[in-house]
Each structure stands twice: as C-alpha cells, then as structure tokens.
Write a structure and sequence with these properties.
Layout lengths: L20 H12 L1 E2 L2 E2 L20 H105 L5
Antiparallel strand pairs: 1-2
Helix pairs in contact: 1-2
C-alpha cells in the first residue's frame, strides 16, 4: 500500500475541514445513528458544490463515539483494501503459474523436437559415413582395376613388340 490509509483533511480558510469520502460516509452514518437522547439531527445541507459541510457541534460523548466510528470505518477500509490486494496477488500468482506451465510445456516440446533433430542428424551422419566407406571401397576397387589394366597393357605390349619389329637380315 503506497498511499496512506487515511488522508488528513485539507483545511480551508474558515477552519472547516474539506469534505472527503470518509467524512461523507461518516456523516451519512451519523444521520442514521441514534443517541440515548433520541435521533441525531442531520447536518445542514449545503447546496454549493465543493463547499464545506457544516455539522452541528457535538457533545463530548458524541465526539468520542465519532472517533470510535471513524476508527472503525478506517479499519473497515483497511480490511477492504487488504482483501482487494490479497485477491489481486492471488490473481497475479495464478496467472504467473499458468504462464509458467505454458512455458514448461513449450520447453518440453522444443526439447522433444531438438532430440528428434539430433537423432535425424545422427542417422544422416551414419548414412554419410556408410556412403564414404562405400566410396572408399569403390575407389580402391577402381585403383585395383587400373593396376590390372596397366599390368595387362604392359604384358600386351611386351608380347606384341616382337611381332612389329622388322627382321634385320
């Protein structure tokens, strides 16, 4: 609660308190209360907007009752504000908990997706390694065929050399 629970009334030039919601409420309460001597008289109505409200002077017992009434009213206001703040805090906590649950679900989905991606990447890498091994085997086989070819070519040339040589007589 950043604002004080009870604001002190601002005094005007004629030393009368300016109307406040608490004072208005208390004066309305006092209109309906009864005293041991009979009903209290309602304060004189002032029709000017924003003007001070005049209340009749009170006896010492009435002043004490008014102080108690004012304290009780202030207590009720504080309890109501506290309840509102408590309800607001509960609402914020439940909203925060819902957002945390949604975030956890989203993170779980992302982690599952990441694991699937890693598994797919490992499968692709394994397939790539198999292709490399197959390529290396084919390259080795090709090199073997080239060596055989070169060998057969050399043999064929060696065998054909005497056929194409001219006889010197």
């Amino acid at each position: 609660m950043s604002e004080p629970a009870r604001a002190f009334p601002a005094y005007q030039d004629d030393n009368q308190a300016a109307p406040t919601p608490l004072r208005d409420w208390l004066s309305a309460l006092q209109r309906y209360e009864t005293d041991a001597n009979g009903p209290l008289q309602a304060p004189a109505a002032d029709n000017s907007p924003g003007g001070p409200r005049l209340t009749p002077p009170k006896a010492p017992e009435q002043a004490e009752d008014a102080d108690i009434s004012e304290l009780m009213a202030e207590n009720l206001m504080l309890k109501a504000k506290l309840q509102v703040e408590h309800d607001r805090q509960d609402a914020l906590q439940s909203a925060l908990a819902a957002q945390i649950r949604e975030l956890r679900e989203h993170i779980a989905q992302e982690m599952t997706s990441l694991e699937e991606l890693r598994a797919e990447q490992e499968a692709v890498q394994a397939e790539h390694a198999a292709f490399r091994a197959e390529r290396d085997a084919l390259t080795a086989e090709r090199d073997g065929f080239r060596e055989d070819r070169d060998l057969w070519r050399a043999r064929a040339e060696a065998l054909a050399k005497p056929l194409f040589q001219s006889v010197k007589a």
